[in-house]
Amino acid sequence: MTADEKVARSKMSLLELAEYLKNVSEACRVMGVSRQHFYDIKSAYAEGGVEALREKTRRKPNLKNRVAPEIEQAVVEMAVEQPAYGQVRASNELRRKGILVSPGGVRNIWLRHELETFNKRLASLEEKSAKEGIVYTEAQLAALERAKREKETDPDEIETHHPGYLVAQDTMYVGYLKGVGRIYQQTAIDTYSSVAFAKLYETKVPVTAADCLNDRVMPFFEEHGVKVLRVLTDRGTEYCGRDDRHAYELYLALNEIEHSKTKTKHPQTNGICERFHQTCLNEFYKVAFRRRIYRALDELQADLDDFVRGYNESRTHQGKRCQGRTPMLTFLDALPLAYEKQIDQPPQPPRMESPITPSEAASAAAAQMGATVL
Questions:
Q1: What is the pTM of this model?
Q2: Considering its fold, how many domains does the chain have in total?
């Protein structure tokens, strides 16, 4: 509800209250307004209905301060002819032609014509080219090529072709649990189907990151006969290190999984995990910590497993591939696509026989840190 709608609703409430009480004075006293104000509202409602009750500004645009129409037209033409120019560069180029307009003035004109961003100026250029059949200049072609390169190097969506093609993994700090300590959640998501996996640990080290894959992710894909080809992570120490001694890198190498890393200072590259973390926080943790007090990590893990199971099998998604289906249904429907793309692979190395416990992970992390110091 907008501010204008709230104002109109408040005025309607005053009229309804007066009608209900059959007493204008009492209604005005309750609402804290004068009787004159009540009759002004009543008169406006009688003349124009609810629309007449909306707040009307008395401010009028000062057209004297606006640039001349020919200058505004020149600025718009410059935006289409040179879409790569910023507001300062456009102002300087126009000054060379004898057209005086400040960078701020250029910006305001662009806002009025919805040309304030590079992509919007490119879209305007393409629209004009389609309508008028114009021939692109060298500068316009360079701007289009630049936009194309940016989209290839920094695409709007992640590249994934079938289940198992790319699994995104990230770490989430849950909080401090009394009697347990800090809690971290290792998250893994199949980027094609949005099937999610989550496991809690007391530390954030390479051993726990590898254990999440070994205990939750790999058994699931092996059960369905699908191979994990790539894993996408950020550049945290639990995921990146020397190939010959880093536990996580060693695990990926043993399972012949390619390791892709996000661009530096671009966490949005792994946005699918960030969005799942927000869902976990809002729909699980904020609710669970208000319902009960957790004394042990296993209790919280059991409830988290129930939430993730519902997330995968019951909760519908509106994404590009799910389109209102659950992640699990999307995964199962896309299995034939994964089988078509999958070629025969050599026998996989055996996984660890049993998943590690949080205490074992902490001991292994301490041992690894000690070995590193030595």
A1: 0.54
A2: 3
